[in-house]
Amino acid sequence: QGLDFSTIASIKLCQEGPTRVDPIANFKDAGLHPAMLRNVELAGYEVPTPIQRYCLPAIFLGHDVIGIAQTGSGKTGAYLIPILSKLMGKAKKLAAPRPNPATFQEGVDQPMRAEPLVVVVVPTRELAVQIFNEARKFCYRTMLRPCVVYGGGAARDQEQQLQKGCDVLIATPGRLVHFMEKPQVLTLRRVRYMVIDEADELLDDDWKEQLDKIMSGGEQEEGNLNYMLFSATFPKAARELAKTHLAETHVRLRVGRAG
Ligand code: ADP
Ligand code: MG
């Protein structure tokens, strides 16, 4: 299901952060990788939503981003489209060596650990699966391989998926920390983009400690790791998380209905 664009038209966006960007008007002029532009068209996206108009250039320019916007405003695409597009040109160089999924034989080929370039953390299994499905659409016919792990799913199956190689990992926090403690299965040392989606819900549910652990788990040479924080509201706990981990020069976008 798509968005109701009469609703979208009434949505206003303001830039609040220390850094400002010029919005794009359409996907064609956004400087997307050709494979991503095709996948955006295949997804039926014709016009970028307000948060996408600002978020795409912000991420392309290499900024950390805080996006405060209600459900249905297109936040998933706002971060997945530019992040995955940027990686499409560089995946060969950045990604870890991995087995070919088409020829991988269970029990014969050596399993490898997952060394994702992108980690998206979400509060629920349903959301994780939903974002995983979006990621699959955007990664279609590219080198990038998405993977999803969540609490309640069989950890053994998820481990096997991870060990076939994973570039884009969508995860709930508890299960992610579980796998971070198994370095033969997962390492965050290659992560370039770390996204905390629905941050307010995560913090409501007391995942603060795990989030700090996850966000510090990908620490590498300065400037190599971008943090994104998306949320419907921006409570104190979310502001603190942002202050600890995001660059001071981040872009902050807030979307709200006019009137
Ligand atoms: P949010 O995370 O802000 O709640 P989503 O990213 O889940 O919003 O998007 C809501 C719905 O709108 C999804 O079905 C998504 O595929 C669709 N959508 C997002 N951006 C666009 C767009 N530019 N054009 C058409 N549909 C879109
Ligand atoms: Mg969302």
UniProtKB/TrEMBL annotation:
User: From what superkingdom does this record's organism come?
Assistant: Eukaryota
Where does the DEAD-box RNA helicase Q domain lie?
A: 25-53
Native source species: Chaetomidium leptoderma
Every Helicase ATP-binding domain range: 56-252
**One MF annotation (Gene Ontology) recorded for this entry:** RNA helicase activity
Family, according to the entry, reads as follows: Belongs to the DEAD box helicase family.
Q: What is this protein called?
A: RNA helicase
List where the motif Q motif lies.
25-53
Key words of the record: ATP-binding, Helicase, Hydrolase, Nucleotide-binding
